[in-house]
């Protein structure tokens, strides 16, 4: 359910902002905290299911868990308007 929801969201966003990179990245920035909040709420059963279906991806997640948490905190701390003006900042 989680995978299907986010695949659908990312695909819809890619279609909606096709050709408008700035709008696409702005929307990505908006969705990342929501995605991370959902991931933080996963139960052990959910993680087990993801590990069974996506072993390489979940292994990469576990191997980089601290970096991903730092990235999440970084994204949350960014002023949205500045990032929209200069995505490379």
TrEMBL record:
This is Cyathostomin immunodiagnostic antigen. It comes from Coronocyclus coronatus. The gene is CID.
């Amino acid at each position: 359910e989680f995978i299907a929801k986010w695949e659908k969201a990312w695909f819809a966003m890619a279609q909606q902002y096709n050709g408008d990179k700035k709008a696409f990245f702005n929307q990505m920035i908006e969705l990342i905290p929501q995605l991370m909040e959902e991931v933080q709420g996963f139960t052990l059963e959910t993680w087990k299911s993801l590990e069974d279906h996506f072993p390489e991806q979940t292994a990469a997640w576990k191997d980089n868990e601290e970096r991903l948490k730092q990235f999440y905190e970084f994204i949350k701390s960014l002023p949205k308007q500045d990032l929209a003006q200069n995505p490379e900042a």
